[in-house]
């Protein structure tokens, strides 16, 4: 793409409601538009398409963020960004010629009378309205009026042409002809165009890219579809192009998913969580103790929760947190499903796996309001492999080729983030994990003894387990997150959708406390205190110091600090519940044949990834709200992952088992939980 | 079907064909209804012992000089109906023109400035409901002269609807047009001439039309109380004279006032349509 001519930079637009409070129409919109590009904005009514267009026109101002055009901020409307309004906006008391002349005379003040008149006539001729030049708009048909509006806009040679549902009110035949004309004119003039439309076919015919907006409130960009159809396009030919129906299907699919998501939210009785006006809660409720049971497995990932408990972040917010320790992931998920736990710190893949109902389980409406930690994993092999000179992935691949036997690797949970990372890493080195590897699901506690007894050849685990194994001299680190995906989501908070809907404030407070905890975990100055805290028996015991050592023995002779990064608890947008990462997880589920790739992935991701909680919690804590950016995810091994093109990514991956696409049944959020609510009634 | 039945009927009674001409169709109903009303009036007048005239007497008693010679002038206040009308119309013209000029100007100011609009709105709402005659004593005190006082009453009665409608018109300029003006960065003069004035014109003329009705209402009342000459004076004068034909004169004057009022209303309306062509 060329250098961006228009940049929509993190734009949020909210409106004050007459009854107090605000309505967030658009949230964190980022978009780059290249010179000469034709962009369509599509989405359900009320999603803020026109608002975005008005912001670009400068008719409206964003609350935060801004719009740059040619590197200058757009602050007011101007003729370089000409708008063709939804209802034409021709002046009814002026003839066609006068309407166009008004624009030309005002904009081309420097030019001579003759030049201006020429331009007016030329523009009238461009849209073929010479015979109607002296008619008043009321005497014209809708299509002719729209042509006048377009002629008026193009007459002043704008840099950016903004069209607000230009053909919405026209009959099909006129619409088709005008689309064709507009396309030719835009192409000839090379004018950069942004068009708001409701019509999928119109968007596909005209655009280079279609930007799909999610439902309001707080609408964002859900998907950006590149329209690869060759130009010049002809309406009928385009429809016969093999790609046309695939693209069309994607757009329709997007819109349908958005509609279902909207219905789903309505059924749940909540829309998107947003910072509300602080409502004076009844005193009795405010004082009521709120109890939450949070499940976890020991590891450095629990540090934010430990800190939050230690510093009283939960009790400050009137929450009594009961941490419940588990030693197998399976057990914890069972208890979560049963409702014995309200929340759990799970692998980043669990919310999706639960929602899809993998491993023979019924699907369960899990959501994730925030990411707790990122990174912190390493892949270790037993010492004997070092003696065989295995120092890299290619060494390992060569060894496996020679030996012909299968590698025995331990993972904590099938389909966990660690499992996916390990498989992805192996596959990138030419090792088919399903052919060459026996995966053993071991409790993290059992890994060390299994390694010692030679029952496994290696494992993937968090820094805590790795440190213990290194310390015991049992193995060495062959790869870390840096070699696979630096900054991947590792552990996330997971809960039931309906519980979250019924306990919104409580969940926001829990997130807030964990965010505060994460902030302290990452503060270097607090390290000694953190080690002291985690060394307590109820957390990690005496090994904590080991795991948090800045210099970690990698077991391979290099004792270096940089190779194994610490977990990320807070910095660099660590808390974001990023549905793009969810999309990557879905590709891997499909890749290893665990489930077909969901055709309704955006609906699924929209249900599961509730970054609105994270953003709101951050705002409540006085921190900047975070939103996922739309940049492709850069993985260290394998190509970058673009959330808008998951299928082509999936097809390009080695050892992909399954590229089937299916509409996955989604759990209904309205299913009532059998358990009692945790919020103690007021009286 | 319809055409069939129409032809068969016209075949049966070809003599009444002219009754179906468009003109006849239009005036048929008013002619019948007004005729009936006049007939009833004439009938009832026969039973009145005070000699209240029926329509026939009204015409016969005022035929000479009032109807056939509307412009006679016997000097003093004894003038024909036409001359009296001219005096009244002259006053209305002055007062109404003043009201139009000042009303539109004030309406523009109030429409364009939020502070002024909020500030003056309560005042305007109160003053516009004051009946015309309530102003007369004050205006007599102020101007000391019947003629100027009458003009002032006309002005103060007619100005409010003009102010209010002009201001509303400016407020109601569609967002579309202001957006066009903003995007094109229209200069002030172009904005006024190309957008503000044409868009507001229909509202202004609505105000002007209401105002002319009120002005006509006010002048007759004002002249009846305090004036020398004018159609209102004519009525009052006829009443005071108490002659045999007084009642007929009064009735004739009422009919004339009504017809002139209607004509004025239509005139302003027609000008409005002409000026605000394509405005809606």
Question: What would the keywords be for this entry?
Answer:
heterodimer, A: 683 residues, alpha/beta, six-stranded mixed beta sheet, 28 helices, elongated, disordered C terminus, B: 280 residues, mainly alpha, 0% strand, globular, disordered N terminus
Description:
The complex is a heterodimer of chains A (683) and B (280). With 683 residues, chain A is of the alpha/beta class. Helices cover 39% and strands 19% of the residues of chain A. In chain A, helix 25 packs parallel to helix 28 (646-652). By secondary structure, chain B is mostly helical. Chain B is built from 11 helices and no strands. In chain B, helix 6 (136-143) crosses helix 7 (146-171). Chain B is globular and about 75 Å long.
- Broad structural category of chain A: alpha/beta
Distance between the ends of chain A: 62 Å
The pLDDT mean of chain B sits at: 86
Q: Tell me about the biggest sheet of chain B?
A: none
Classification by helices and strands of chain B: mainly alpha
Termini separation of chain B (Å)?
39 Å
Q: What is the global morphology of chain A?
A: elongated
Order of helical and strand elements of chain B = HHHHHHHHHHH
Q: What is the arithmetic mean of pLDDT of chain A? A: 85
Number of strands of chain B: 0
| Unreliable stretches covering 5 or more consecutive residues of chain A | 277-287, 669-683
Residues in helix, % of chain B: over 70%
Which pair of protein chains has the largest interface, and what are the residue counts? Answer: A-B, 25 and 20 residues
Low-confidence stretches of chain B: 1-10
Radius of gyration of chain A: 29 Å
For the CA atoms, what is the radius of gyration of chain B?
Answer: 25 Å
């Amino acid at each position: 793409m060329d250098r961006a001519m228009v940049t929509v930079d993190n734009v949020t637009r909210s409106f004050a409601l007459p009854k107090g409070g605000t309505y967030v129409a658009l949230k964190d919109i980022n978009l780059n538009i290249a010179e000469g590009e034709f962009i369509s904005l599509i989405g359900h009514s009320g999603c803020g398409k026109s608002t975005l267009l008005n912001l670009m026109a400068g008719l409206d101002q964003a609350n935060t963020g801004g719009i740059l055009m040619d590197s200058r901020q757009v602050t007011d409307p101007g003729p370089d960004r000409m708008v063709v309004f939804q209802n034409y906006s021709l002046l009814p008391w002026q003839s066609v010629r006068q309407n166009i002349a008004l624009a030309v005379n005002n904009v081309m003040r420097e030019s001579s009378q003759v030049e201006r008149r020429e331009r007016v006539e030329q523009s009238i001729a461009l849209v073929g309205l010479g015979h109607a030049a002296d008619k008043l708009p009321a005497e014209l048909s809708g299509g002719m009026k729209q042509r006048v509006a377009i002629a008026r806009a193009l007459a002043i040679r704008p840099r950016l042409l903004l069209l607000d549902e230009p053909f919405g009110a026209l009959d099909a035949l006129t619409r088709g002809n005008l689309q064709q004309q507009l396309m030719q004119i835009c192409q000839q003039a090379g004018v950069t165009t942004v068009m708001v439309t409701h019509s999928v076919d119109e968007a596909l015919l005209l655009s280079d890219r279609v930007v799909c907006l999610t439902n309001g409130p707080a609408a964002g960009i859900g998907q950006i579809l590149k329209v690869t159809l060759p130009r010049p396009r002809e309406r009928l030919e385009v429809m016969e192009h093999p790609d046309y129906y695939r693209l069309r299907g994607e757009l329709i699919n997007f819109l349908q998913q958005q509609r279902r998501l909207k219905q789903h939210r309505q059924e749940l009785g909540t829309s998107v969580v947003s910072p509300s006006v602080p409502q004076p809660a009844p005193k009795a409720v405010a004082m009521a103790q709120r109890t939450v049971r949070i499940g976890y497995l020991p590891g450095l990932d629990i540090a934010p929760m430990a800190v939050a408990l230690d510093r009283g972040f939960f009790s400050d917010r009137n929450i009594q947190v009961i941490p419940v320790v588990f030693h197998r992931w399976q057990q914890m998920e069972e208890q979560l499903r049963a409702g014995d736990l309200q929340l759990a710190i799970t692998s980043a893949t669990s919310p999706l796996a639960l929602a899809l109902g993998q491993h023979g389980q019924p699907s369960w409406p899990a959501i994730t309001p925030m990411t707790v930690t990122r990174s912190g994993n390493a892949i270790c092999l037993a010492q004997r492999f070092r003696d065989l000179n295995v120092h890299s992935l290619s060494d390992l691949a060569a060894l496996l080729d020679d030996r012909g036997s299968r590698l025995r690797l331990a993972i904590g949970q099938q389909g966990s983030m660690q499992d996916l990372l390990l498989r992805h890493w192996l596959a990138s080195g030419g090792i088919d994990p399903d052919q060459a590897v026996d995966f053993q699901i071991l409790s993290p506690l059992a890994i060390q003894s299994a390694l010692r007894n030679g029952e496994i050849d290696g494992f993937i685990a968090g820094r805590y387990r790795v440190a213990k194994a290194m310390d015991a001299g049992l193995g060495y680190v062959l790869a870390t997150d840096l070699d696979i995906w630096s900054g991947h989501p590792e552990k996330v908070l997971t809960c039931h959708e309906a519980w979250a809907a019924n306990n919104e404030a409580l969940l926001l407070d829990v997130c807030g406390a964990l965010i505060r905890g994460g902030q302290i975990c990452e503060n270097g100055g607090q390290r000694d205190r953190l080690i002291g805290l985690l060394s307590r028996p109820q957390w990690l015991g005496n090994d904590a110091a080991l795991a948090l050592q800045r210099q970690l023995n990698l077991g391979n002779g290099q004792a270096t600090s940089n190779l194994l990064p610490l977990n990320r608890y807070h910095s660099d947008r660590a808390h974001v519940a990023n549905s793009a990462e969810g999309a990557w997880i879905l590709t891997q589920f499909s890749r290893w044949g665990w489930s077909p790739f969901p055709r309704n992935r955006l609906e699924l991701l929209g249900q599961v990834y509730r970054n609105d909680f994270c953003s709101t919690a951050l705002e409540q804590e006085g921190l900047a709200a975070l939103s996922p950016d739309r940049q492709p995810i850069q993985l260290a091994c394998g190509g970058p992952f673009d959330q808008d093109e998951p299928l082509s990514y999936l097809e390009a991956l080695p050892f992909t088992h399954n590229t089937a696409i299916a509409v996955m049944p989604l759990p209904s959020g309205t299913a009532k939980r059998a358990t009692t609510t945790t919020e103690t009634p007021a009286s | 079907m319809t055409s069939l039945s129409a032809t068969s009927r016209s075949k049966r009674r070809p003599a009444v064909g002219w009754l179906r001409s468009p003109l006849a169709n239009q005036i048929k109903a008013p002619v019948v209804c007004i005729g009936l009303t006049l007939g009833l009036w004439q009938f009832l007048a026969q039973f009145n012992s005070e000699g209240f005239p029926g329509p026939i007497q009204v015409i016969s008693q005022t035929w000479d000089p009032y109807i056939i010679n509307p412009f006679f002038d016997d000097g003093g206040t004894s003038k024909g109906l036409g001359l009296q009308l001219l005096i009244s119309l002259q006053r209305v013209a002055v007062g109404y023109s003043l009201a139009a000029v000042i009303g539109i100007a004030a309406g523009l100011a109030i429409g364009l400035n939020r502070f002024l609009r909020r500030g003056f709105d309560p005042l305007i709402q109160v003053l516009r409901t004051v009946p015309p005659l309530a102003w007369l004593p004050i205006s007599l005190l102020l101007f000391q002269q019947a003629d100027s006082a009458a003009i002032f009453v006309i002005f103060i009665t007619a100005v409010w609807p003009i102010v209010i409608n002009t201001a509303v018109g400016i407020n109601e300029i569609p967002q579309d047009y202001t957006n066009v003006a903003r995007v094109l960065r229209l200069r002030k003069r172009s904005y006024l001439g190309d957008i503000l004035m044409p868009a507001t014109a229909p509202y202004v003329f609505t105000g002007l039309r209401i105002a002319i009705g009120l002005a006509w209402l006010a002048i007759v009342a004002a002249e009846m109380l305090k004036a020398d000459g004018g159609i209102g004076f004519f009525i009052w004068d006829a009443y005071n004279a108490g002659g045999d034909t007084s009642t007929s004169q009064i009735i004739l004057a009422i009919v004339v006032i009504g017809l002139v009022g209607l004509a004025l209303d239509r005139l302003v309306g027609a000008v409005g349509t002409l000026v605000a062509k394509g405005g809606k």
